[in-house]
């Protein structure tokens, strides 16, 4: 679920910001588990980031309004339509909700919730520090993702810093804020995954492939292989 702000509730003092900046590189090294190398390879499958971004240079707005990236920012992010997909450009805040782990729990995340909108094949909440997933805004008058062929388990190409990560739709957030993904998504993209002070202002592009679905939702290898094929089809059709 969306945090009040990527920097927590209220403004951080300058010293905390500086400390976070100085330790971010170390935090990156600490969170990369033994399965990260395999995900690094899978994140590069399919078309390049540049090839996908070349198709996202103009926006045909399908949302009736625009979203904020954080509570304190203005609403200036539209949801855009393309042939076979919808997309938007935003920041990336960290979602650590779902299964309780050493990295995602009430102590590491002040806004932690032990559930996700969509569950795995065993009916359990998703594991944010293992599964790359994105958070889609809950349905509202601004935009209802369900009317755009998007559902839980749908495939999303998350594009940042010349990298492409294939993730699934795994959680829903507030109706007015956009731009959030799981701890694992951040790690794979080289973004500080700390739920309290991590994330990035971007730009991060989120490309949702319509009527796609990974089953079981927790199968990241399947999301990557299907996502790479869908990404190539998207390029061919646009």
From TrEMBL:
Keyword field contains Zinc-finger: no
Pfam families named in the record: Glyco_hydro_75 (PF07335)
PANTHER family on file: ENDO-CHITOSANASE
GO cellular component: extracellular region
GO MF annotations in UniProt: chitosanase activity
Species lineage: Bacteria, Bacillati, Actinomycetota, Actinomycetes, Pseudonocardiales
Signal peptide bounds: 1-29
Transmembrane segments: none
Keywords from the UniProt entry: Carbohydrate metabolism, Glycosidase, Hydrolase, Polysaccharide degradation, Secreted, Signal
Protein name (database record): Chitosanase (Glycosyl hydrolase group 75)
Subcellular location: Secreted
